[in-house]
Amino acid sequence: MPVLVMKFGGTSVASLDRIRRAAKRVGREVANGHDVIVIVSAMSGKTNELVGWVNEISPLFDAREYDAVVSSGENVTAGLMALTLQEMDIPARSWQGWQVPVLTTSAHSAARIMDIPTDNINTKFSEGMRVAVVAGFQGISPENRITTLGRGGSDTTAVAFAAAFDAERCDIYTDVDGVYTTDPRIESKARKLDRIAFEEMLELASLGAKVLQTRSVELAMRYKVKLRVLSSFEEYDENAGTLVCDEEEIMEQNVVAGVAYQRDEAKMTLISVADRPGIAAAIFGPLSEAGVNVDMIVQNISEEGRTDMTFSCPVEQVARAERAMQEAKTSGDINFHDIVADTDVAKVSVVGIGMRSHAGVAAKMFQVLSDEGINIKVITTSEIKISVLIDRKYMELAVQSLHDAFELEKVA
Amino acid sequence: MPVLVMKFGGTSVASLDRIRRAAKRVGREVANGHDVIVIVSAMSGKTNELVGWVNEISPLFDAREYDAVVSSGENVTAGLMALTLQEMDIPARSWQGWQVPVLTTSAHSAARIMDIPTDNINTKFSEGMRVAVVAGFQGISPENRITTLGRGGSDTTAVAFAAAFDAERCDIYTDVDGVYTTDPRIESKARKLDRIAFEEMLELASLGAKVLQTRSVELAMRYKVKLRVLSSFEEYDENAGTLVCDEEEIMEQNVVAGVAYQRDEAKMTLISVADRPGIAAAIFGPLSEAGVNVDMIVQNISEEGRTDMTFSCPVEQVARAERAMQEAKTSGDINFHDIVADTDVAKVSVVGIGMRSHAGVAAKMFQVLSDEGINIKVITTSEIKISVLIDRKYMELAVQSLHDAFELEKVA
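Output (structure tokens, whole complex):
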């Protein structure tokens, strides 16, 4: 039978009633002749509670223990979903990451899936099981420890299963009905997109439009997984949600597809770094090993053999970044006078494949921000996006002004 | 280094503060030169929440999924405890049941531990780890599914580890400061026992004095594990708590050691069963397979080849018991007219090794109950205990009257 992957996020399984509603959608696909792999997140709020406890015990926690703790919420949902499906007379069972097994790297809290052997689950499908309910977000390392894939990792679990089982489609059920030109909570004129290109979705996801985890989109693009984002709270419809697809499949295209933001950024500056070949590697190697997700990087012009190095990362990783830098200083690998963290910044970006063939998007963006009196602290650009770091208090204003200026409420 | 097993129950790890307090006790034993295996329960209330969800989805749940769900609370505590110990600079890591591995039978929700290979944990001890924090209550079946050992199963986990690792002692930290002559919430004159014999503890545990899980005491007796029950809320003291030991180690002994009760019992009667050789096996075989814990059994005198068969079991297993009996009737294995459940009964028992050499305990017990106007529905006896099933509303009165009559507030 053709395999369908259906992923339900935390708000879609937040209560027994919602699990039942999700199970009904699964039941419809089973009735339509699919074997279904259901990927579940933890019930809404559960993972945050666990993360909060870990952070309270130790801001510089052992990521292996963090993973063992925070992965537990998905196990609960998987069991509850399997029980609910069984109660509807659908042959189902739950699978935890280590049971499948979902084999990952040892990079705890940000592990990558290496392989998903399909034998165990396929054997059960061949014995009559119709639904495999898999705990998302988790796997096991070569050392047999539990790993997690980073926040939102269940999306990646879903796409990886769709690729491994050659699924017909991967439906991501969430609490929004698709991908918007920007966050409707910030800009009421935000418009739902029927289709969006993988590349655009990739930038939007990585830039903080929290609909899909970045790596899930990368994986979908690489393995050509048909990926659909849709709401678990609305009536089902063949064309519901937003289809993430190749850009060739999109007829009309605005120059800018959307405006994304990332609220909780920090800007860190190493003051007066001894400048020498290999200094960037000496700084960002240890940060990467410490699990710090460095995003934007700016290096000042060097004066008298010293320079300032600025980078951005999520606010909650500042302590870890500082520690890694102090250690690298102590061990003599790098030398700097001081380390300064600005934890009150946010990132705002405009994204669009159309920018490749249209000049002037950057100039227009800077003008709009300037007109609003918003100071730009750091700029980075790529072929299809422009990002700026600004004071967090101006974030909403920036998003609204840019959405207006690029007329994103209108279809091209 | 000598190994010590320390088990912390749900109330002892109910919050991060309490986990810290427990970790300090562990730290003291590490400082005293022990390698420590810490067995943890789920944070107080967590398992009940999970059990509630499962029951709400399906009263006749798949026990394999039940186990997958309810075992998650212990995993959380194990990780949090390991993090807390690490924060105190004590080398520690968490172990889930499947990681040790704790090998059990496939009897889900009531699995028995078959073996605990010590290699993985001992390798880590030899590498400098000082504390192995193990999630209690859980293991894996030969089919690689998660199993649980029944409510209170973490006690059994603790004793099994103490036996497997040849531990110096097994300390069970709980919310009471030892074993009492009866529940102090029911009888304020209840007295703490300094020592109690394995056999007595076994009867008290199985009869509902909820200090230790029955099987943990059986295991401790078989493997001669020095078992101590003590409070995690009181100042530490070498002689704190109650030591569960061989009767030879107890100098003075009352005839009756304690009065136990079990509140939520049900009395089930199969009316007019066709009486024939093997009928008991035909009834209690299927009940056992369905996971029903049958306790007392009474068979009426047979009339015209038919009899009534009465048994007791926990109230929450009544639905399962009825289903197993109806199925056995449908399949023709047994034949009865009706099945009747009385879900308003409780069990009260007096227990004491001294009863072996003292006559008249039963007579005195029946007289005391009769004087209070309490009707006895079922009686069972053993060498060292007498149990009666009575209406639940008289339970407290029965416990108090018996405690008084046998003068349990006084030391022998």
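The mean pLDDT of chain B is 92.
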